[in-house]
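SAMPLE LOG
Freezer: B-3
Tube label: C17
Construct: single chain, 503 aa
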Amino acid sequence: MFQSLRVAARDRERLGEIVGIASRFGLGALLVRFGFDRTAPEIGAAGGDGLPRRTRLALEALGPTFIKLGQILATRSDLLPPDWIAELEKLHSQAPTLPFEDVRHIVEQALGEAPEETFAAFDPEPLAAASMAQVHRAATLDGRHVVLKIRRPGIERQMRADLRLLAHLAALAESNSAEMRRYAPTALVRSLAEAVLEELDFANEGRNADRLRADFANDPRVVVPEIHWQWTSEALLVMDHVDGVPPRCTDALRAAGIDPEAIAQLGADIVLDMVLINGRFHADPHPGNLLCLPGDRIALLDLGMLGHVSPRRREEFIDFVRSITASDPDELASVLQRWSTGVVPVANIRRTADRLIARHGGQRIVLAAMVTDFMTLMRQEKLVLPADLLLIFKALMTIDGVLSSIVPHFDLSQAIERSSLRIAMHRLSPVRWEATLQSVGRELLRAGDDAPRLIRAAVARLEAPPAAVQPHTSPAATVTALRWLAAAIIAGSALIAAAVGLR
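STRUCTURE (predicted):
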């Protein structure tokens, strides 16, 4: 099927598996469309399944690397039509459990001894399993209930082989197909590689948990399981066990003494604070990664991959929402111009802004409808968004769907309006300005250190005969410079006095 693809001998066996599975699900036509040769027969196209569903089934059969690829593609509603997005969103990482003896060596290597010796109690029966790992319960010697997330044996080797093959395929597709070049496959595979390697390192997941716990340290309603670092490594993650109710059913929440309305508002506030204030967020807040706890609290789980939002991107997203609310097509077009990748005609951007404002401007924003329309317009006008923005939209759409399932007609746009006050307070927070003020202070102190030399130079210039003064330097300019110098000295002195007074 890939006659023009050259791969190392170590990856040929895996390539054969990929070819066989692609043929079994009838994907040869799709590969030819993107510029690949096809020599293997189609053996699975029958049965009435459409191409999106067959692709999703093939990705699941190919394993965790391809499942992750499909999950990333599911965020690209600016490129793929709704039927593809709906199908790829069904991708999951469920996998059969392995007998504990098959993974025992991984645990013992990480712990330095058998788990039965490390823990007061250890359950060899898996609690859950996914394509990358499986989870077992245990209890520490001091009585804490924990779970062990154990990486599947051989998974790293297979995923690295998949990434090498996908990099070859992406380069080949980009050179052979103009249609495929619009999808920027090489950049997509780079993003996939970063995501996969992050998730393969369970110590990275532990660090992500610590970061989010610190972000919400002042909000007891947000729970992030504590990591037990003395036992955690790249292949083993040990963390507190959290027992809660997934946010899927209003009746189940009420039966547990949890208020669905309070959970919906908290869930929206959490995601908005992560995206718009903290600058890092749970990249996949679906119901399986959230648990609702008594006291109307939410626990965040499965933190293998976080999205990151730069301060500039946060401001742009706020401008995007504000321009739609205010029916300002000029501001919206300005934001879209900054967001668009590649060479895009200005007319396309303006047309997108005008149509989006016409449909959603000056009224309550229904997030799902607005984002769906926005992505449709992006596809029609051949505009492509940066990947980090798509993660933000995906996270907001996901949490909107979760919250709407427990509180019908939940209005996330109202939560965005509520968050504006928290955003304003964050902008005025001393913590946010601390680094800037410290930098200004250092510069002023440097000016203070140079003050004696600068004063002597300025006085010498004032005392010099007119012929010694440069012709382009006026007395007024010299006086102005002295005033600025005096202001710097005074400001530096004030900062020094303030620093001394705070000790």
